[in-house]
Amino acid sequence: MGQAERTGARIASARERIHPDYRAMIDDWQERFAADQSFRRLHLERFERGAADPWVFDDGSGPLEACAAAIVAASRARILPADLGPEGKSLMARIAAYANGLRRRLLSR
Fold first, then answer.
1. What's the pLDDT at 1?
2. C-alpha distances out from residue 80 to 7, 85, 98, Å
3. Which domain of life is it from (predicted)?
4. What percent of the chain is helix, strand and coil (3-state, nearest 5)?
C-alpha cells in the first residue's frame, strides 16, 4: 500500500472514530485529498507522456528549456527537488553531458 492509500485509509478510519459533529470536517478532508490526488495524477500522466516523448515539455526552446519546464511542472505537482535527489543528480549529469556535446560540436578552439 502506498503513502496516498495509507493517508486515505487513516482519514476514513478517523471519520468512523470521531464524534458525529466532526464528520463534516473529515468529509471536507476527504474531498480535498481526492482533489489533490486527481491533480497529482494529472501531472503524473504528463510525466509518463514525457518519458515516452521528451518534447512534451518542450516549447520550442530546446532540451535545456524542456528540462526547466519539467522541473517547474514537478514543483506545481508539489514535488520538491529535495524529494528527487537521485533523479536530480541524473538530470544534472545529463544536462552537463548535453552542454559538453554542444561545446564539442559548436565551439571552435
1. 63
2. 19, 9, 24
3. Bacteria
4. 85, 0, 15
Q: How many helices (H) and strands (E) does the chain have?
A: 4, 0
Are 50 and 56 spatial neighbours (Cβ–Cβ below 8 Å)?
yes
Residue 28: Cβ within 10 Å count: 10
pTM (predicted TM-score): 0.51
Query: Would you list the domain boundaries of the chain?
Result: 3-106
Residues 17-39 pLDDT 10s: 888 888 888 888 889 888 888 88
Report the alpha-carbon distance of residue 50 to residue 71 in Å, rounded.
12
Cα gap 32→22, rounded to integer Å: 16
- Report long-range pairs for 5-10 (Cβ below 8 Å, ≥24 apart): 7/33, 8/33, 8/37
